[in-house]
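Re: that chain you flagged

S.,

Sorry for the slow reply, it's been a week of failed gels. I finally had a moment to sit down with the sequence you sent. For the record, here it is as I used it:
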Amino acid sequence: MKWITLYGSVILTFSSWSCDICGGVPGNASIGLMASTQFHMIGLKSTMSCYRSYLSGILHSREFLLQQELTGRWQPAPKWQIMASIPYQFSIQQRDLGQDAVAGFGDPSWMVNRVLVHRKDSLNITRSFLSIALGVKVPLGKRAPEKSMIRNLYPGTGAWNLNAVLLYTTRLKRQVSWQQEGSISYKFSDSYGFRYGNTYSLASTLVWNRKAGLGRLIVGAGLRLDDFEASTLHSMGMSGFNNQGVSLSSQCSLNYMGYRWLWGVNLKNPLVQNFNQGSMKQGLSASLSISYLLISQHQKK
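Prediction finished late last night. Pasting the structure tokens below so you have them in one place:
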């Protein structure tokens, strides 16, 4: 019965807390894995991202960010989910004349998801699913000093974020589902008056899943569009680099779910991007994750 419930209902996204193009600070929220199922989950996720910065068209520096996340999800009721993430990040910037490195805990985040529509067929297989989520990022992580020139290497922002996510999924065929997700992240100023711009995202993903051995193989592929507004200082526009830009990326994910464990490999690759008037480029981002699954009491009924 467990696999019947999962069949056709796996909701696949590619990151719990996506990062701003400017660095490791949380930007776009996502509902996460298996939104339409009723599992408690706890897991670990490791993500590696790389960036390049240019001055007058000449390569100036390379940035590498390695983030480790402790993630969790609690299902207090059939239509309610609570998700949380605590990141730890190591960042390094390499230049011709030196390098800088920053390590520390990032800002923890949590989100509450409410299921609005969950239609199933006679076999208890999900046919359509709609949910809305609201969340907050709390400024408890390590942040940059006021006059820092490497602010984007720090894992925390020193400011609150409010996030909203709307997700809709429909089953197209017996083993194929289509997910659409839109998210907004509203960002407040830190105590120095610096404010990262709001971010907006749209994602469309095809999800294919089938039985494989004693578990299930879950594959997803799709596109994601991200829009980053300009950063401000004391509510005024900033000259030079302000982290403003857009990005269209391809995404793919391979997951295997056993009886109690979920393993995942995720890749994100920018196809078209324009940040800071072309002076910053994001490269391939890859992540590995493992989660332990607990069946909630609601699902046993």
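What I noticed first: The chain has one domain: 2-300.

Talk soon,
D.
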